[in-house]
Amino acid sequence: MFRIKHLRGHFNMKQKVVVIGSNSFSGSDFVDLLLEEGKYSVVGMSRSAEKSALFLPYKRHKDPDYKFYQMDMNKDMRKILDLINDVKADYVVNFAAQSEVAPSWKNPGHWFETNAVGITKLANGLKDMKFLKKYVHISSPEVYGTCEGNVTEDAPLNPSTPYAASKAAGDLST
Questions:
Q1: Fewer Cβ close by (within 10 Å): the C or N end of the chain?
Q2: What is the largest CA-CA distance in the chain?
Q3: If we measure between CA atoms, which residue out of 66, 70, 69 comes closest to residue 36?
C-alpha cells in the first residue's frame, strides 16, 4: 500500500485539495490560485514530471503547503487513491486528460484508456471515501461538437473526434 508518511502532520487546519493534472495549463493555474489564497494545502499530481517555473506558475511560491507526485492514472491508480486517502483530501479536482485532437485519430484507444476508463476507475475509487467533500471533474467544450452561441452544460453531447468521444464517455461515467 502506498503511504505518504512524510505528509502526516504536514497538513494543518487548511482544507486539503488534490489536483490531478496539476502540470496542465489549466491545472497549474488552478494550483497557483489555491496557493495564492493561502487557505489550502495542495497535493498536485501529473503523469509528466514537473516543468520549470516558466510553465508552472505555482512554482514561484515555493510553498511548503504544496507537494507534487508524478503518477500516471493508467499505471498508478492504486497509488493515486492511496495518496488521496492518506491525506484525507477535502476536495479532488481532476484536470487530467489525454488531450490533443489530431493525434487522437491515430491511437484512439490511448485516449479512451485515460479519458474514459481511467476517469471511471478514479470516480469508482473515490465514491467510498467518506471524508471527501467534493470531486470536481473538468471536461472540454469538445464534447459538444461544433456549436454556435452560448453552450450550457445541459446541451446535447455531440463529440466528433476520438478525443471528444473519450472525454464525453468519462464525463458520463462520473
A1: N
A2: 51
A3: 66
Angle CA 161–72–15, to nearest 5: 105
The number of CA neighbours under 13 Å toward the Cβ of 8 is 4
Provide the residue-wise pLDDT of the chain in tens; the chain has 174 residues: 444 444 444 445 799 999 999 999 899 999 999 998 989 999 999 999 888 777 787 777 778 889 999 999 999 999 999 999 999 999 999 999 998 899 999 999 999 999 999 999 999 999 999 999 999 999 999 999 988 889 888 999 999 999 999 999 999 998
Helix axes 119-126, 77-87, angle to 10 degrees: 30
Evaluate whether residue 2 is within a structural domain: no
**The CATH number of the domain where 86 resides is what?**
3.40.50.720
